Amino acid sequence: MARRKKVYEGKAKILYEGPEPGTLVQYFKDDATAFNAEKRDVIDGKGVLNNRLSEFFMTGLNAIGVPTHFIRRINMREQLIRSVEIIPLEVVVRNFAAGSISKRLGIDEGTPLPRPIVEFYYKDDDLGDPLVTEEHVIAFGWASQQDMDDMVALALRVNDFISGVMMGVGIRLIDFKIEIGRIWDNDFQRLIVADEISPDSCRLWDIKTGERLDKDVFRRDLGNLADAYTEVARRLGVLPMNAAPITKPTLIN
Predict the structure, then answer these.
(1) Residue 217: pLDDT above 50?
(2) Number of CB atoms found within 10 A of residue 247's CB
(3) What is the phi-psi region of residue 106: left when phi exceeds 0, alpha when psi lies from -120 to 50, beta otherwise?
(4) SS3 category, 164
(5) pLDDT by residue (tens digit) across 58-97?
(6) By Cβ atoms counted within 10 A, which residue in 71, 97, 196, 252 is the most buried?
(7) Angle, helix 46-63 to helix 225-236, in steps of 10 degrees
(8) Which of the four CATH numbers 1.10.3720.10, 3.30.200.20, 3.40.1280.10, 3.30.470.20 does domain 6-84+225-245 have?
(9) pTM score > 0.90 for this model?
(10) Three-state DSSP class for 206?
């Protein structure tokens, strides 16, 4: 079997050349990182869970007309995706105060925000992915005003979808981040949701208990990360309710 060409490797995923022009294979690793990779570990089965969960959310978004890069899941750790030109911004939507906004503004974690707040962070690990304004984005040419309007609209549609799905299984969507990419149809540009949607990129709290079911479990040493992600997958029907926690990647086909 021919060795695939690696295109990019990040903290949690590897991108390989796809089987057809305009496609990539996205591989989910078991690596867990926090605080700009200052804290790191390997969590058995994490990549398997995130692959299945991201498939679940991306498929749902595609079904309601929100375009994503997701084409299909290939196996337990890989999915086929469209190749896109990633806009160098993390788009964050916040429904409740948590994490950095609580620290910046002195708002208690868990406080409902008056409305969903969309923030932009410049993707640069060396700078710590700083918060930027629309003025910065447009002035430095990272995106146009039309791009910004389209990104906000996309992010809010994603928020509506994930919030509703999670509410239905007793989980509160505190906040999440997505990446957005450009694709081209001849001379026509479209923006689509890219990267992943998983507990790595969302804050998810149990509605009744407030238990964290996201990467804050790892950031704050609150328990077993694989157990938390497995619970999310069970509630969403991605795993059977009686499934054992995933500790080896061979348990899901």
Answers:
(1) yes
(2) 13
(3) left
(4) helix
(5) 999 999 999 999 999 999 999 999 999 999 999 999 999 9
(6) 196
(7) 30
(8) 3.30.200.20
(9) yes
(10) strand
